[in-house]
Fold this protein.
Amino acid sequence: MATKITTDMVKQLRQATGAGVLDCRKALEEADGDLERAAELLREWGIAKAAKKMGREAREGIIGAYVHMGGKMAAIVEVNCETDFVARTPEFQQLAKDLAMQVVAARPEYVQREDIPDEVIEREKAILRAQLADSDKPAEIIERIIEGKLNKWFEEVCLLEQPFIRDEDKTVGELIQEYIAKLGENIVVRRFARFEIGE
């Protein structure tokens, strides 16, 4: 027998996920009343919706700013969306501020790995190869080790691949996908700048 979906269950799932009432009810029905599974379903549906929206053009947006206590460090981030309406929402403005805070705290150098010049990647690979030169491992193993270390390096230097400072279980890219699903528009981090006294 199917579990009866109560308004309390819908309310609880809404508070946990921020999804709409109808989506929460549908997810709870599909998960047979299991709140955790329903939350997972909502995330899956949101990511699928977000993926469809990611190709759309984002020309509106705002500049998010964050100045660290004491005024010694700051960052500004250009975050774009599709409409001025979404750009003015408190959720979008909070995202822009959180991203600026991320830039101050985690010191990324690029927005995404596609922004890294080829010569910088080749230089990093050369450094890794030099570190493994005395290793007596086979060449294909060394290449796999280099690939793994390079991916770790991307996580450090690319904003979208960094763990989000407020929730390290998700990357900044995953956070943005959640906002795309929640706000219904494509969202793009265009560029950022970080400032620190004495740098």
Notes: Helices lie at 7-17, 21-30, 35-53, 84-87, 90-106, 118-131, 139-157, 172-183.
